[in-house]
Amino acid sequence: MSTFRSDLSGKEFPENEKISAKNIRQSLLHFINKTHPNFSKSCFLSIEEMNEYREKYISEFLNKKLGNLTEVEKQVIQSVSKNTMISTEVEEDEQEITFGQKLADKVAEFGGSWGFIIFFMTFLVAWISLNVFWLSNHGFDPYPFILLNLILSCIAAIQAPVIMMSQNRQEEKDRERAKKDYKINLKSELEIRELHEKIDHLIIHYQQDLLEIQKT
C-alpha cells in the first residue's frame, strides 16, 4: 500500500488520505499557519490531521462566541470534525424504559382519559345504588359509605405519585429532546458557515485559474 509523508507532522499516511493544502479553505489554512508557519498551499496533509485542526478551529471559534464550551457543544464539534451524523446518535441514545416506567405511563394515560372518568362514575353510581336502593339497610357499605371513602382515598394516594413519576419522566424526555435539537441546530449552523467558506474558496480559486488562462 502506497504512502505519503505529511508536510505538517512528518508522519507517513496512506496515499488515499492525502489532501493538498490548496484545497483547504483559507480560514482553516490560516489557523494551521499559526502553529506551522511554513505550511503553504504546495504542502500536503492527511484527513486525520485536517479533522484534528478542524476540531481545534471550531472549538476556538465557539469559545469566542459562547465562552466556555459545554459537553453538548464538544460533542457537536467532534461530530463536525469527524463528519458523523448526530441524527443517528439521537436514535441510538433512546433508552429502554423499565416495567415500572411503562406501568406508570399506562396508569397516567388511563387516569387522565374520559374512559377512566366514565368507568369511575359508573362504579360510584353502582356502589351507591347497590347499598342504598337494592340492599336497603342490609348493604355491605351503608350511608355515609365509609368503605367507599377508604377505597377512594387509597386510589388517590397511589395514583398521584404514579402520575408524578410519569410526568417527571416525560419532562426528562423533553429536556433530552431539547438538548438533541440544540446539537442538531448548532451542527447545522457550523456546517452552513463552513459551506459558505468553501464556496468562497472555490470562487477565488476559479477566478485565479481564469486569470492564469487569460495570461496564457
From TrEMBL:
Keywords (alphabetical) are: Membrane, Transmembrane, Transmembrane helix
Q: Which domain of life is it from?
A: Bacteria
Task: Name the residues that span the membrane.
Answer: 114-134, 146-165
Keyword hit for Membrane: yes
Span of the signal peptide: none
Which Pfam families does this one have?
DUF1003
The protein's name is: DUF1003 domain-containing protein
Taxonomy, top ranks, is: Bacteria, Pseudomonadati, Bacteroidota, Flavobacteriia, Flavobacteriales
